[in-house]
Structures are given as structure tokens and as C-alpha cells.
Write a structure and sequence with these properties.
Elements: H1 2-22, H2 51-62, H3 86-95, H4 103-106, E1 120-125, H5 127-134, E2 138-149, E3 155-165, E4 177-181, H6 193-199, H7 214-221, E5 224-229, H8 240-257, H9 259-262, E6 267-272, H10 274-289, E7 297-303, H11 309-315, H12 322-335, H13 345-351, H14 363-367, H15 386-396, E8 406-411, H16 419-431, E9 436-441, H17 445-451, H18 453-464
Helix pairs in contact: 5-6, 8-10
Length: 473
């Protein structure tokens, strides 16, 4: 079985490299901000007498590193950061998603630090193309590009699409807004809902953009819908700080763009699976990052919650979910390159190949190999390392209270994203004094998405109609 996996993995690598030669060069993209200080990175442990360390050593002896050359930034400056070797900086740059040929998604605006978080950079009317995807009547769809903040507090940008219903709002106050945090779960910039709204249906458009039909149901209810591309320009899938900032700054952008229509609106969030990562990050960041939104966001419903990556390291590694897990680890490494520093040569080839632009639907073929993440590391037992422990701690966002009431649900029979993480989150938030509800629902990840959805949406609808949340803590 290991020989078969090795053969298939080698075939995948060769195919990836071949794809890279066949693909056209992506358009030039301005360089991102500098990397964080990695001078305190723990030393690589040495372990012998185990099969996997032997395989890891064999991989680096047989497979040379990919030919990555450090390139100057578009503004002419060389990327130099204390604690980051030129080799790691070049690997990081090469691992970032390729441009898609559209400046609204690709271009890093000059003077980004001069913009306030949530300040609008560009707006594009995408009503014509979005109409073929939303399918229910609406007045307008606007793609917004706005300033946000990355995982390390540096200026970045994000995009989000605002869908406004056709009819006048007949309820009290201003029209409410549902923030639909979709499970983007992807590595490439053309995998986002914003890209689909701007360009129409493509091979990379995800069915989870429409099922469950949160956007459609909300529009029919008379609510506007905000759909953030919450992975940011680096497509940092599963990084909760990036996602949380992008969501909160998207709300700021809506209020800034259309203050007469949405300046006093109530906003409610929904997210499942990868969308729950964004929702989890956003509600915990309101208090410190966007305190003015604590009275604006009236509640958040989140299900299938990947709240603890240490749990997922046990449940998703070395099985059919392993490709999704490895994609998330790699994508977090785009924001936290200490992860990239721990990749072996095979992983570096793959991370700099067209695999780096895969959408979620492309992970299935790789998942069939059921490879453990150890096969991509340059040291033994990476999921129990100091680097992993720090990533678990940071992404868990421990002891950070939500600023808004929560409705949390998870499938009781869930095996890839066990209910343990969602239950722990519920207990934590109750202990921190947050109004919260937890529901264990029938099913694993897919069935649970269906069985838990109706009550979650009813709960969120009540919050948007001004009904106070009742805590079950």
C-alpha cells in the first residue's frame, strides 16, 4: 500500500510540474507585505528507527528542491525580513496563489496602510452576471474591494459581494443584512464566490455557494446579503484571523458605501464548516478589532465547527479527508510561514505547482491516496511538534468571548469534524458570559448540514427581527 501511495504521489507531482509548464504565466502581481520574524523557530528534532522518518529522509535525498528564484518586488525592492531566510521568503512568494487577470482580485493597492479598515478601495456592479447565479429577484449586486488586516496586523485587502433585494423593505427600521460566510475551502483566487459573481458560473464555482440556499432565502425574506471572500488575497483557507477581519471589514464597507440604506441595519452571520471558521473568527474579534459593531451584529449561527485544529489533526489526517486537511495546513502557512519551513522537497514541489490554485472540488482525487501529513514534512511527527502546538493555540482563539449571541450546532455522528470541538466552544463561551445555544443534530458533516440548518436559520431570523436571544448556558 505504501508503495502504491508513493507511486501515485510521484505521478501527481510529475503531472503538477507538467501542468505548470503548460499553463500560461500569470499576470504580474504586486508583492505582499513582509513576513513575520521567525528567528525563534524551534530546532528540528532528530528521531531514528521509525518508518516515516526514514521515508522523509529518503524523499529529500531522492527529490531535489524545486528551482525557486527570489524575485524583486514589483516596486523594485527586494523582499528582506529579519528572521526569514531568502530561501524561505522565495518559497513563500512562490506558494502564493496565481493571479486571475482581474485587478480587483489581484492588485495590491499602493498606500494600502493609509486606508482605514473597511474603507472602500473599489466597487464594481456585477448585477448582470450575479443574476444568473442568485436566481431570485434582486435589485443590485455590488462587488466591493476594501482594506482589511492580515493575521499579523498588517494592511491587506478583501473582496465581498452585496446582494440587495428588489422590493422595498417593509419591516421596522433599516433593511437587515445576512452575512453569508460560505465554505470556500480553496487555494485559488478563482474559487471564491466573488469571482463567480463577477465572471459567471465557471468550472471552479462551488455548489456550496448555493446549497443550502441561504442567499436566496434571505433575499426572498427581504434581507440584503453580504458574501465575503474571507480567505483574503493570499487564499489563507482556515486562518481564522484573516477570515474574521475580512468579514468584519466587509460589514464596515457596506455601512460606509450605503450609509442611508444600511447605516442602521442589523447584521446577522451564518457559516457552516469552512464558513464557520470565518464566523468563529469574526465574533471573537469584534470586541478588540471592531468594537463599534458589537451593537450592529445581533447574532451568529455556526455549524460543523472546526474550532480546534488539534482535534482535526486526529480525525482528518491519513484518511479520505487528508487532502482537505493538508490544504488547510498549507494555506495557513501562507500567513504563518513557519509551516512552510517544515515542508520537505516533495511538498515544496507540490506547493509551488498548479496544486496551489486548486479549488475544493480538486481535493477529492488527492484524498483517495489517504496520505498522512507526515509525508510532506521534513521532520518526524509534525502534528505533535512545537510549531503545531503553537498553531493549535493561536487558531483556537482561546478565552476570547464572542461579542454577540451564538447558535452552535454539530452533527452527533460527525467523524471528520467531531462535535467535541463545537461542544468545547459552547462551554467556553458560556463560561465567558456569552449568550449561547448548542444543538447536537442527526448526521455526520453532510447530513448534519441539512438537519441542523432550519433551526439555525429560524434562530438567526429572530435576531434580525429584533427578538432577544435566550441563552441556554
Amino acid at each position: 500500500m505504501r508503495s502504491l501511495r508513493a507511486l501515485l504521489l510521484t505521478t501527481l507531482l510529475i503531472a503538477s510540474v507538467a501542468m505548470g509548464h503548460a499553463a500560461a504565466d500569470p499576470p504580474a502581481v504586486p508583492a505582499p507585505p513582509a513576513l513575520p520574524d521567525l528567528s525563534g523557530l524551534p530546532a528540528v528534532p532528530h528521531v531514528s528507527g521509525s518508518l516515516l522518518p526514514g521515508v522523509q529522509e529518503w524523499i529529500d535525498r531522492v527529490i531535489p528542491p524545486p528551482p525557486i528564484v527570489s524575485t524583486p518586488r514589483q516596486d523594485g525592492a527586494v523582499l528582506e525580513t529579519a528572521g526569514v531566510s531568502p530561501t524561505l521568503a522565495a518559497l513563500h512568494e512562490a506558494s502564493l496563489p496565481a493571479g486571475v487577470g482581474d485587478p480587483i482580485f489581484d492588485h495590491w493597492p499602493p498606500g494600502l496602510a493609509d486606508y482605514a479598515p473597511g474603507e472602500i478601495i473599489e466597487v464594481r456592479d456585477v448585477t448582470a452576471t450575479a443574476g444568473l447565479l442568485v436566481l431570485v429577484p434582486f435589485r443590485q449586486a455590488l462587488l466591493m474591494k476594501y482594506r482589511t488586516t492580515d493575521a499579523h496586523g498588517r494592511p491587506s485587502f478583501a473582496t465581498a459581494t452585496l446582494v440587495v433585494p428588489a422590493g422595498a423593505w417593509a419591516g421596522p427600521g433599516d433593511r437587515p443584512v445576512v452575512v453569508n460566510n460560505l465554505p470556500i475551502d480553496a487555494l485559488g483566487r478563482d474559487c471564491t464566490p466573488g469571482y463567480s459573481f463577477a465572471n459567471g458560473w465557471t468550472d471552479n464555482t462551488s455548489v456550496t455557494d448555493f446549497i443550502p440556499p441561504t442567499t436566496q432565502l434571505a433575499v426572498l425574506r427581504g434581507y440584503a446579503v453580504l458574501i465575503p471572500d474571507h480567505e483574503g488575497p493570499w487564499m489563507a483557507y482556515a486562518e481564522p484571523y484573516v477570515a474574521g477581519h475580512a468579514v468584519l471589514d466587509g460589514i464596515r464597507a457596506v455601512r460606509d458605501l450605503l450609509p442611508e440604506e444600511f447605516g442602521a441595519s442589523a447584521f446577522g452571520m451564518f457559516g457552516y464548516s469552512g464558513g464557520a471558521i470565518a464566523t468563529h473568527g469574526a465574533v471573537k474579534l469584534i470586541e478588540d478589532y471592531a468594537p463599534e459593531l458589537s451593537e450592529v451584529v445581533v447574532g451568529a449561527a455556526l455549524g460543523g465547527v472546526p474550532a480546534d485544529y488539534e482535534i482535526l489533526a486526529r480525525s482528518m489526517n491519513g484518511n479520505l479527508a487528508s487532502a482537505v486537511f493538508m490544504a488547510a495546513v498549507f494555506a495557513i502557512g501562507r500567513e504563518r510561514p513557519e509551516i512552510l519551513a517544515r515542508m520537505n522537497n516533495l511538498a515544496k514541489w507540490i506547493a509551488t505547482s498548479p496544486v496551489k490554485d486548486l479549488c475544493g472540488s480538486g481535493f477529492g482525487a488527492i484524498g483517495v491516496l489517504m496520505l498522512p501529513i507526515d509525508i510532506a514534512a521534513n521532520y518526524p511527527d509534525p502534528l505533535r511538534s512545537e510549531v503545531a502546538a503553537e498553531i493549535y493555540r493561536v487558531t483556537r482563539m482561546e478565552n476570547m468571548p464572542s461579542a454577540v449571541p451564538l447558535y452552535i450546532y454539530n452533527g452527533d455522528q460527525e467523524f471528520w469534524i467531531p462535535a467535541e470541538g463545537a461542544r468545547n466552544l459552547y462551554r467556553e463561551q458560556c463560561e465567558l458570559g456569552v449568550s449561547a445555544v448548542y444543538r447536537g443534530v442527526l448526521g455526520e458533516h453532510l447530513i448534519g448540514a441539512v438537519t441542523g440548518y432550519p433551526e439555525a436559520m429560524l434562530w438567526l431570523d429572530e435576531r434580525l427581527r429584533g427578538v432577544p436571544a435566550v441563552s441556554e448556558c
